[in-house]
Amino acid sequence: MRRLPPLTAIEAFVQVARLGSVKAAAEELALSSPALSRRVQALERFMGRSLFERRHQAMILSAEGEKLLSRIAPALDQLTLAIDASSGETELVRLRLGVMPLFASQRLMGRLPELRGRHPELHIDIDTGSHALARLGEGVDAAIVLARDVDSSLYSRRIDRDTVVGIVNRSLLTGRYPVGKVDDLARLTIFLHRDMPELFTIWREALGRPDLEPAAVDVFDSGQLMLDAAAQGLGVAFMLRSHLEDAHDDRLTHIFDESIDSPYGYFFACRRPALSTRAVRIFHDWLFETISTV
User: Fold this and answer.
1) Confidence (pLDDT) at 84
2) What's the confidence (pLDDT) of residue 18?
3) Which residue, among 236, 269, 232, has the nearest Cα to 254 in the 3D structure?
4) CA nearest neighbour of 249 among 265, 235, 222, 229
5) Can you tell me the distance from the alpha carbon of 194 to that of 191, in angstroms, rounded to the nearest whole number?
6) Mean predicted lDDT score pLDDT of the chain
7) What is the value of pTM for the model shown?
8) Is the pLDDT of residue 146 over 90?
C-alpha cells in the first residue's frame, strides 16, 4: 500500500485553502502559525510541488492546489462525518441559508429530499430576504446570491455560468406588430433585476448597439415576478437562459438568437471561518456535487 502523508498535514492544507490564511487556519485548528505552516510545507514536500501562491497575509491556491483540494476535501469531510456517526455525535445540525427566491424555487427545493436522504441530521432555515451577504454571520451562515463577483474577504465559489436572454410571451412574436429585430425594442418596456442592473447594457454593447434604448425600463427585486410580467405580455425580461429553461412555462420564449455570455451568475458565499462548520460544509459539498454546472 502506498505511503500516505500525515492526516494532520492534509487537514492543515484543507483549512488554509478554505480560510485563505495561515493565521485563520491556525486559530481554527488551535495551532501556532509556524506549526501549521510546517504541516503545509510537509505536504508540499511529499507532493513534490507548491500548493499555494504565498502573498502578503494571504495564501492563494495554485492550480495544483486546486486539483488536490477538489479531490481530497470531500474525502476528509466524509471521514469527519463517519467519525461523528461512529461516536454517536449525529445530533441535529442547522444551517441558516440566505438564498435568492427564484434559485430556491427553480433549482434548490426539488433537490432537497436527496440532501435529506444523505444527511437527515441537517436542517435548513431558508431566508429569502435581501442583502444576504451583508448579513453573513449575523442572521445567515451562508448565502446563494446573484452577482458579478463577491468581496474577496469572503469565501465564495461560482455555481454556474450562463448567457443573456430576452424573455417574452410568445404572442409578441406574431400579430400585427411582431417583435423580430433588435430595433423593435425601441417600442417595448424591458424588465431588469436589481441584482443585474447592467444586463441590458452588456447585451446591447455586445451587439454593437450601445445607443439602443427601449421605451421604458422597469426594475424588479423578484425574478419570479419578472417572469410573470413577461408571461402577461407586458414587456421583455432580460435574465439568464437558465431562468427561462427552469421556468417550464409554455407561454414564454426568448427573442433573437444571439448567445452573449453573462458576467452575472449565482455564487455560494460565507465567512471563511464558517466553511469549517459542519452544517455549512455539508451543504457546500453537496451543492457543488449536485447543482453546480461550473
Assistant:
1) 62
2) 80
3) 236
4) 229
5) 10
6) 89
7) 0.73
8) yes
Question: What residues are paired with 158 via a beta bridge?
Answer: 267
Phi, psi for residue 235 in degrees, rounded to 5:
165, -160
Kindly state the cell numbers that stand for 104: 430556491
Q: How far apart are CA 153 and CA 131, in angstroms?
A: 16
C-alpha cell at 35: 506549526
As a three-state string, the secondary structure of the chain is: CCCCCCHHHHHHHHHHHHHCCHHHHHHHHCCCHHHHHHHHHHHHHHHCCCCEEEECCEEEECHHHHHHHHHHHHHHHHHHHHHHHHCCCCCCEEEEEEECHHHHHHHHHHHHHHHHHHCCCEEEEEECCCCCHHHECCCECEEEEEECCCCCCCEEEECCCCEEEEEEEHHHHCCCCCCCCHHHHHHCEEEEECCCCCHHHHHHHHCCCCCCCCCEEEEECCHHHHHHHHHCCCCEEEEEHHHHHHHCCCCEEEEEEEEEECCCEEEEEECHHHHHCHHHHHHHHHHHHHCCCC
All three cell numbers of 198, joined, read 447592467
Q: Is pLDDT of 88 > 80? A: no
Average pLDDT over residues 253-265: 90
In the structure, what pLDDT confidence band is assigned to residue 102 with cuts at 50, 70 and 90?
Answer: very high
In this prediction, residue 269 carries a pLDDT of: 96
* Cell reading at 18: 478554505
Q: What is the pLDDT of residues 107-131, one digit of tens each?
A: 999 999 999 999 999 999 999 998 9
How many other CB atoms are there within 10 angstroms of residue 92's CB atom?
9
Q: What burial class does residue 145 get, using C-beta atoms within 10 Å of its C-beta: 0-12 exposed, 13-18 middle, 19+ buried? A: buried
